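=== RUN LOG ===
request id: a7f3
mode: sequence -> structure
chains: 1
length: 311
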Amino acid sequence: MRAQDSATADDTIAVSGATTAPTAPASGAALSGALPAALGVVAFSLTFPGTAWALEGLGPWSVVTCRVVLAALVAGGALLALRVVPPQRCHWPGLLVVAAGVVVGFPLLTTLALETATTSHAAVVVGLLPLTTAVVSAWRTGARPSRRFWAAALTGAAVVIGFAVQQSGGAPTTGDLYLFGALLVCAAGYAEGGRLARSMPGWQVIGWALVACVPLAVPGAAFALYAEPVRLGGHAVAGLLWLAVGSQFVGLVVWYRGMAAIGVARASQLQLAQPLLTLVWSVLLLGEHIGPAAPVAAVAVLVCIGVTQRG
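=== RESULT ===
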């Protein structure tokens, strides 16, 4: 796909001092972009439960470094098998931002947070992520989404935050600083990755970002496994494998593909559903309890998502 064909549909164009919304993308093109982005959200919604499982048998530093090494093996194998040419020099600064934010920063900070916070409480950061990603993307690319877009995004974020805080009891945890730090670095990684995905396939964006982390991840994993206790069981292995393959590679592949097709800001709003999905998985996989407010919050979030997708 050429770069001009995959320009963001939610951007607006300044003409003679006025801000005018562009023509909406064809329904088929919008669907082809929204579907992979939605699949990415489903994959990401299992990240916190997967991390909780992995922490049952590994320390936090072991979880983070091992997931990067395993994901890099998958990504590097795919790049080698398909004989993909390395990115141009101009793309590497952006790839390093993706690596720092999405591959290392977000997993590390959220894993440290989940040592003391529940998955329900950690879902707050995911509720804020769509809005933060849209803000970072607008600053980085010069995009100017409409006022209706921002109103719906803020409303949806407020609904998700209120629901997640209510589920966690509203009390701050010692992991809050980790969560807010994760929010910022992940938004930067998403925005930069979405920009790069306009000029190279999304799977190559995350693939090369993972490969770039190998020189630090391999010795880091060896040291962490030596320094931290290891008690591998079914949950720990399943959680680590999901983090490495599902969340760290496959989920990001389809996510960046969706962002390239429908734009970073609009794709990010699909993540408003992610905290609700995470809470569902928390009930099914971790035995956490969710009150009757979930259906109401889910409907409100879906309405907000619909508004942002229409501009």
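=== NOTES ===
The two ends are 23 Å apart (CA to CA).
The CA atoms of residues 124 and 164 lie 6 Å apart.
=== END ===
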